[in-house]
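Per reviewer request, we include the raw input and output of the structure prediction for the construct analysed in the revised manuscript.
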Amino acid sequence: QGQLVESGGGLVRAGASLRLSCSPSGRTFGVNTVGWFRQAPGKEREFVGAASWSGGRAYYADSMKGRVTISRDKRDSTVYLQMNSLKPEDTAVYYCATARAAGARLQSEYKNWGPGTQVTVSS
């Protein structure tokens, strides 16, 4: 089963935008959903949003709605997480992973986790 690799993180100022990428490093089977999570220092990993692998409608955590957008480039299967109006509290390691279930939101539903990409937002 293929793994995922995240990229695009970095250090930005509050109010900036950032686009993260999630690319498969191998073939993926039985995948219906690609999800994004984040983990801030000292906190548990939390759901950010997800979308159908086939490019269907995305869904988001209530706390992220209006500031993030998930999209997919079907040419190379890359999934993007566009984040706008970033705040210092968005500082975290961001991960992507796959799930079989449509509408998955729980960590336990996901596998093939990437190593993560660090996003740091300064005030």
